[in-house]
Amino acid sequence: MDKISRISQGLTWPSLKEKRVLLFQRCENVEEKANLVITDWIASRRYFCDTEEVLCLEIINQRKL
User: Fold this and answer.
1) Using CA atoms, how far apart are residues 16 and 45, in angstroms rounded to an integer?
2) What secondary structure letter does DSSP report for 33?
3) What's the pLDDT score for residue 33?
4) Mean pLDDT by 10-residue block, N- to C-terminus, for the chain (65 residues)?
5) Which of 27, 30, 34, 50 is the most exposed place for a label (fewest CB within 10 A)?
6) Nearest by Cα to 45 from 14, 1, 10
7) What pLDDT does residue 22 have?
8) What's the predicted TM-score (pTM) here?
9) Distance between CA atoms of 59 and 24, rounded to whole angstroms?
10) Distance (Å, whole) CA 41 – CA 35
């Protein structure tokens, strides 16, 4: 099974999980102000595509709504 297939099935790697933790810590002040659920699959997919900043901005923007 190649990487894209595994990601599309929702499987993640430890490094991706660590990056998500760091990302959410950086956005912690926003995290406390709203309830927004980002699925592991979406977060993993975006990290796989190297769009960490886009995910962080998306979290901030959606929580402003």
Assistant:
1) 9
2) T
3) 47
4) 54 60 63 49 53 59 58
5) 50
6) 10
7) 67
8) 0.23
9) 9
10) 18
- CA proximity to 45, closest of 4, 2, 24, 1: 4
- As a whole number of angstroms, the distance between CA 50 and CA 46 comes to 6
Q: How open is the CA angle 49-50-53, to the nearest 5 degrees?
A: 125
Phi-psi region for residue 12, left (φ > 0), alpha (ψ -120 to 50) or beta?
Answer: beta
